Amino acid sequence: MADSPDKTTLSDADQKLIVDALTPKWAGSHECPICKAIHWTLVPYVSTPMELAGLKGGIRIGGGKVQPTATIVCMNCGYTMNFNLVAMGVVPPDSEPTPSGGGNVTT
Ligand SMILES: [Zn+2]
Question: How far is the CA of 9 from the centre of ligand 1 (A)?
Answer without folding.
Answer: 24
